[in-house]
Every structure is written in C-alpha cells, then in structure tokens.
Amino acid sequence: MIREGLYLIWHGEPYPANTDGYRVFIYTDHATDGFRETAPGRYERDVTDEDDVAGAYLSTVGTWRGVPVKALYDDGEQVRIEYTGGQAPVAEALGMDRVDKGVYQTWAPRTDLPDLHETALT
Fold it and tell me: Origin, by domain of life (predicted)?
C-alpha cells in the first residue's frame, strides 16, 4: 500500500486524516464502529477531543535507478514516483517529467522499486 499525507494514529492504527480548521477527522473505506458514512464507501470519525490520537505524516519512499524517490500512488503494476534528490540534472538524465519547478515525476514498474517502505514524521 502506498500512503502519502497526513495520518492520525487512533487505537494503534493509522487513518487518513483531515481538518476543517476547527475539527479533526479520520477516514476509512469500510463500515467501522464509531464512524459515520458520509458517502458510499467513505466513513469518517471526529477525533478532535479524543486523547488517544497521535499525528504523523506518512510517506512511502525508496530508490529507483539509484536515486531517492517517494511513491505518490499506484495503478497496480506501475507506481507514480517523485524524485527527492534535489538535483534537476539527475532527474532529467533519468528521463523524468518536470511537473513543476524543481519537481520531477515518472511512472515506474513496481518491480523496479524493491525497497519501498513507509516512513513517518511525527
């Protein structure tokens, strides 16, 4: 599984999270006790006042062709990756697409990313 973004740890499990500026919500894609359905396949729980919640920014990282990358999402066989090495000439030499100033991405076969792993900033 590729995860990227704000997650909250609630009851020992990471959940995607978001805020409306005042309240903090966690989400899941299946019916779970204490969560309310907000759309088909979308359930949320307000954890604003709960004590057993810890925040983390989860990112899936690894290397591709010897350079550091983070995985953004996948379509099963292919993974959309972003170069994180900070050297535009390196990304360009690897044939990555420039999607913004200093931001380079490409699709890579999952088999070319054997060391993908999650890291958390808490």
Answer: Bacteria
pTM: 0.75
- pLDDT for res 67: 97
Whole-number pLDDT of residue 122? 65
Do both 86 and 117 map to the same domain? Answer: yes
- Written as one string, the DSSP assignment of 21-49 is SS-EEEEESS--TT-EEEETTEEEEE-TT
- How many independent structural domains does the chain possess? 2
| pLDDT < 70 regions, the chain | 122
Please work out, in degrees rounded to the nearest 5, the angle formed at the alpha carbon of residue 120 by the alpha carbons of 14 and 85: 140
Spatial distance between the Cα atoms of 78 and 13, rounded to a whole number of angstroms: 27
Same-domain check for residues 114 and 67: yes
The span from the CA of 120 to the CA of 111, in Å, is: 23
Range of the domain at 112: 58-121
Out of 13, 31, 54, pick the residue that ends a domain: 54
Note whether 50 and 63 are same-domain residues.
no
